[in-house]
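Translate sequence into structure tokens.
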Amino acid sequence: MTPVTMLRSWLSPPAQNPATPLDAPARRALWIEIAIVLLVTFGLSGLSSILSLLEAALAPEPLSDRTVALNSPQSSQQFIDLARQLLGILRLSAWGALGLYLLWRSGFGPKAVGLARPYLRRDVLPGVGLAALIGFPGLLLYLGARAAGLNLTVAPSVLADYWWRLPTEVLWALANSGAEEILVVAYILTRLRQLGWSENSSLFASAVLRGSYHLYQGLGGGFGNVVMGLVFGRYWQRTGRLWPLVIAHALIDTVAFVGYQALRGHVSWLP
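Result follows.
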């Protein structure tokens, strides 16, 4: 297969719609399910992020002068803070579990959506590669957008230096990656495929959803996550494997959370 043919196959994959089209009541029920899931999870987060970006844009100071923290203290009391951090992690994990459960109930078990037993060569190594592919350009995009005044200053983690900070940051990274890749990739793309959407249309919708709930970071954060969504979504459509996306996302977030805390105050371009 020539490089041009391979590129075309990735950009325009063959349709994989269900053999039996859904009747009108089934389609309506599926749309209702999607709407409820999005309103409970990342769809509502997207609407909230749009309002946050609008609020920041209307403020007198430039976007880059405003700071948003991804992981921040939830209480001045150490163990209440820890409890609230764990509740947030549990909430994200429940979102991912909800997506998996609904897919399983409709005949798409974990193996069908790419969460069979992970393998080093087929899952872990591609995950590391995807993390590098998205992480380094993403950092450059963030710095460029912030310099252009299109992005807020993002502080990945400002948790207090308690004994539980490091494991909590790793747990946040795992919960983020699991919930996002299960819902925004496996769940949404599967459901839109059932509804007869083309692979490209469903991929675009998934990527825009991912970008929407990162708009609280600014236009750069939203655009960067749309690009990430296009890459991750197409990878899943072509390979059917979700573990590489979960691993890549978890690595990116872990490096951001832990690395920020380690380098803060030692690197000039970090807030």
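Note: The mean pLDDT is 91.
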